[in-house]
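In the previous lecture we treated proteins in isolation. Real proteins rarely work alone, and many bind small molecules. This record shows how such a complex is specified: first the sequence, then the SMILES for pyridoxal-5'-phosphate.
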Amino acid sequence: MDVGALRAQIPALANSIYLNTGTFGPLPRVVTEEIIQGHELISAHGAFSPVVRQRIEREGYERTRTRVAQLVDASPDEIALTSSASQGICTIAYGLDWKPGDEVVITDQEHSSGELPWFVLHKRFGVNVRVVQITQSADQILQRFADAITPRTRLVFASHVCSTTGQRLPAKEICALARERNALVALDGAHAVGQFPIDLHDLQPDFYVMCGHKWLLGPQGTAMLFVARAHLDSLQPSWIGWGAQCEYTENLATLSYEPLATARRFEFGTKPWTLFLGLDRAIQFIEQIGFDAIEPRVHQLASQFKNEIAQISGLELITPQNNEHSSGLVSVVAKNFTGSDLRAFFWNHQKILVSSHELARRVRFSVACFNTENEIASALDALRALA
Ligand SMILES: Cc1ncc(COP(=O)(O)O)c(C=O)c1O
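The predicted 3D structure, ligand included, written as tokens:
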């Protein structure tokens, strides 16, 4: 991989040490240009002109859906384009018909967007939430899921890659276990897509949630939801409106409507068409680098980084060191600092951009394929100074 040439295509890398792709990835210049071109077309013709509707709404937007489907080995009919991963999770949570006493099994490492919807279901519908504590042993994790799933479990929800530690969970085995026990399974792949190849045909989740704006280097406001074909009829849209692609008569006496039998049933209202053109370009950008090049480079940089962090006393590395169970996310607990202290400390130290958690006193570095050995060395210097 020619890292210098790659970096030259991503403007934000010139202005900071960008170790925050796990929050928002930096936009390649071609992505920004694609969005601008879309807006220029709108500016030249007006948003609802036949030219714009054909080129952006019909061709561009649907090309993005097809590209997402190809990226994860699914059918375009199984992909809904959403404005956030949070929206995708809520689409699942509020699309199932819950009964009091139903159970959902989640982990103790979920993002707030992967926790809060279940709390609401608990409060509104009497759904019980069982929480599996994640350890660094895949066998132990699977045993804990096996213990937590009961005949009342309707849904198992887990991150494919935990946003807290970057740990890669045994997703395929979790899906198989849920299936064996007649529970549905939803994976939160916000940190998986763009980091390594995802084959939904092989994983076989019922639902899979993805972010466009992290490791795929797409714009904010783009995300994707996979709904397996078998559930396209049964998962009900909770929000609906114009553009929802449903058949209905405006006969207020019958109150009848029929949502489309594809995942487009979950899309409605005005959409940010041009952002999805940008997402399409971002996926092409990632595909041109190729996961064959991305994965080994991230493993090499992250391993080197973690090995050095493990030797700094006073800091606790909470990310597994083993490549098979980790990713480009590297998290460290620094007990004496709040999250905002940590962000400010790294920013003031050579403009290192990181994310941090206020209460958990944790700083998270996102190591991406475009990062350099020198940037990792700067982050290590800062960590030693912090310690
Ligand atoms: C694991 C995980 N799930 C969901 C989300 C929410 O994503 P979005 O901002 O697209 O709603 C995030 C965001 O950081 C995340 O890390």
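Summary for your notes: The pocket of pyridoxal-5'-phosphate is lined by residues 84-86, 111, 113-114, 159, 163, 188, 190-191, 211, 223 (CB under 6 Å). The domain at 38-286 is CATH 3.40.640.10 (Aspartate Aminotransferase; domain 2).
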